[in-house]
Amino acid sequence: MTSAQELEKTTQPVRGTKKKPPGATQSSSGGRQGMFVRLSSDDKQRAEYWADKRGFSSVNEYVAEAVIEKVRRENLDYDLPTLEIARLNELVDQVAALAKNSANLERVVTTGFDSLIGLTRGDNYLLDDENGELA
Fold it and tell me: In the chain, where does DSSP find H-type helix?
C-alpha cells in the first residue's frame, strides 16, 4: 500500500457520514487532524443515533466530542451529575444516622450495665422497702 493510499484511509470519515464538500480545507475543521476509527456495527449505529439526537452535524463530530470528554474524565476533570451528588449526600446522611444510632446503643448498654451493677450492690431504688403508698 502506498503512502498516498494510507493517508487517504486515515482521513476518511466514518462510513455513513457526510463528506466534506469539494474544496474544503483542513483548517475549516478547526485545525484538527483526521483519524480513522473502526467501530462494530452496533457501536456505529449507537453513535449515529446519539449524534443525531444531540444535534451533531456528523458522527465524526460526535466521536471527536466523545474523545475529548473521555480524556477529561481520565484527567478527573468533570462535574458530578445531579443524581450522583444526591446519592452521595444520601450516603453521608445514612452514615451520620448510623453514628447516632451507635452512640445511642452505647449509651443504653452502658446505662443497663450500670443498673445491673447497682442491683448487685444493693443500692438500687427498686430494692427499697414499700410503705404501702402509690406515690
Answer: 3-11, 41-54, 59-74, 82-121
The answer to pTM > 0.70 is no
Taking only the tens place, the pLDDT of each residue in 53-77 is: 999 999 999 999 999 989 988 898 8
Angle in degrees, CA 65, 51, 27, rounded to 5: 50
Residue 117, number of CB atoms within 10 A of its CB: 11
What's the maximum distance between 2 C-alpha atoms anywhere in the chain? 113
Residue 31 CB coordination number (10 Å): 7
Nearest 5 degrees, angle CA 78-CA 41-CA 54? 40
Q: Which of 3, 4, 57, 67 lies closest to 35 in space, CA to CA?
A: 67
